[in-house]
Fold this protein.
Amino acid sequence: MRFLGMHTDGKFAVANFSGAMDNGEIVHPRASMQNETYLRRSLKAVWHPCTQMKAHEQLPLIPIQRGEGVWLYDFDGRRYLDAVSSWWVNLFGHNHPRIKAALKDQLDKLEHVILAGFTHEPVIELSERLSAKTNHQLGHCFYASDGASAVEIALKMSFHYWRNVGRSSKRQFMSLANSYHGETLGALSVTDVALFKDAYGPLLRTSATAPTPDFRLAESGESPADFARRCAAVLESHLAEHHAETAAFIIEPMIQCAAGMAMYDAEYLRLARAICDRYGVHLIADEIAVGFGRTGPFFACEHGPITPDFLCLSKGLSGGYLPLSVVLTRDGIYEAFYHDDVTRGFLHSHSYTGNTLACRAALATLDIFEQDDVIAANRQRIETIAALAEPIAVHPKIKHFRNRGMIWAFDVVTSDPQFARKFFLAGLAREMLLRPIANTVYFMPPYIIDDEESALLTGQTLEILNEIA
Ligand SMILES: Cc1ncc(COP(=O)(O)O)c(C=O)c1O
């Protein structure tokens, strides 16, 4: 996610190459002739995502020619440190030799095959390995291409499961306040971000919202765990009354990323699991943003530890190489669909379901986790970045400095509605790709960021804070 507050109206001069402050105004580096050609063509032909396109009259696009490690290069050779892993997908940065080699090898064998009635080696191996990562608690994998599609699948499967077992009154969903689960109609129904949702309100299902355990909202003196317990009590009283019509409760475990890296205590996971069990409601863990080591362990649910009934994965799944998402489910759920009656089956499909190349990229990603012991290596990286970020953590203009795993965030104290946009532009001028969410600045760097690059990231961020906050 997304621009939240970045593309609001504002005055931006496309001025000198330095990108420095110019008479108090943030300016953007002048695009070279090559860059200019691409951005003109792009604006003429491409409708860019999550963007008020008119904002590009003042805010230039950055045409990227190539990537290498944590760096993205434009057509003029300027570089940008991809501190957001390109919308949180490029776990190991760009142009990774091992993922690239695996894809080249797969290209010579099979690029794609229909997954209905056919199967292939990468999808089988990937399903087996993902299931093993859940200690075989979640035994079956259903594939799609994007995060929102995975959420749609989990919601439909949950409803259909209850229908198959004779409980078709269970057709409501519940999510957390400030949740983000994607932007197709079903996923948007369980998303709670007004900016994305309001315009489509008439098209959406209503769903219940439980208080977010975001620990920034705790009372002073209240611990994150106590706050989690207070929020869970509200969840419980809602489900006590509405469990008969509630199919599933969907959460982003440990961190609501799109809400501005809202972190919460693992106690909430444990309580949500217990409450869902008590009232016969499915728990859907949307780990699309937080899976694959982002919060420290491989899955965020391990913080509980808990096992959800459905686990949605995407983004880092293919290392940022190809669109791929998956929903893992318990065997008991799978079995409720297994029947002579066709209509009891899960008759959902996408043309690219289980695309062979995408699955192979995902296998290469899992190989890197194993060969490089990424989870352990990240522990060292986290310590290094935490030490480097110390001057930011104590900066007088920020509050709620927070870190979990490979995510850092802090809220800048500002009343400037243009803050996010100014920070973004000041970042570009300093070779940093940082996309604040409203006044929350965050780092979600690729796991291959080295000490020097980490020092650049934290050092430049501090400079930007001093410059514009
Ligand atoms: C938690 C979560 N769920 C779902 C999605 C939607 O994924 P996609 O953008 O691939 O549809 C996102 C995307 O940011 C997300 O962060």
Remarks:
- Residues 1-28 have pLDDT under 50 and may be disordered.
- The first strand starts at residue 13 and ends at 14.
- Residues 28 and 137 are 51 Å apart (CA to CA).
